[in-house]
Amino acid sequence: MNANGKTVLVIGAKGGVGGTAAAALLRAGWTVKALARGQGTRPDLAGTQWIQGDAMNRADVVQAAVGVDVIVHAVNPPGYRDWDTLVLPMVDNTIAAAKAAGARIVLPGTVYNYGPDALPTLTETSPQNPLTVKGGIRVALERRLEAAAREGARVLILRCGDFFGPHAGNNWFGQGLVTPGKPVTAIPYPGPHGIGHAWAYLPDVGEALVRLLAREGDLAAFESFHFGGHWLEPGVEMAASIQRVVAARTGRQPVLKPFPWWLVTLASPFVTTLREMREMRYLWQRPVRLDNTKLTAFLGSEPHTPLDRAVADTLAQLGCLPA
Are 159 and 111 in contact (CB under 8 A)? Predict the structure, then answer.
């Protein structure tokens, strides 16, 4: 039942961020449409109207967006591949669809568009001078959205730290700290133990987006917020949380070990995902904290699930804990 009379199109609803946003908006009474390739859907998103289409096909995106109030642009090339040829054309199609429908674009943002000069504390006005290819693409993406806002579109960006949570896609938690589908016996931690690190639990991010969109009348045409999430100092506290959760469930505590950066370096010329992980290593070598002062002032508070509970839910969904 559509309790608020509003409709959202989620592009990337089969992924972690998009699926979480769709679930949160469904709970809040929105009509949710999802553009996806292929026949498969997500059983946990019952009530979603699935539309077959391709984010790289402008006609598909424009047609799917007819009559919507918001477009959540949560689509990314899988495995960090082909960013240079896919990311910007996809957002251009979303911009065209939003202009045609009169809809606001929502972008779940990252810290990739910040270089070392902006660290350790990131605000909405911090300089965006990335030293990586992927970071440069993220900057170009946001600049296109900002230009679209000057041309009559409306944009909301919520930048977050490293995502984790149920159904999360490409992320350090499920690709670096643990192995999906396998018991956790060892945790390779990617950075110096004492360096702080920011994490964003997906259900909290989804709830924040719902609360922001409920304040549409108070949002500027181009609006950005930073999501504080779980700021862990020391950063190794994420590994310690995994240890506590696994020990409580199994009686055995995983060991902590260094992340094999040497192996990533050796394999990176041949494996795109590893090459991109190596390129972003600087985000583990220095503290990365998102200042959520603006967000908490606007909303009153930021949704926040206790760390061990969030980690337990994530590990359970990844199949890393016994039933």
Answer: yes
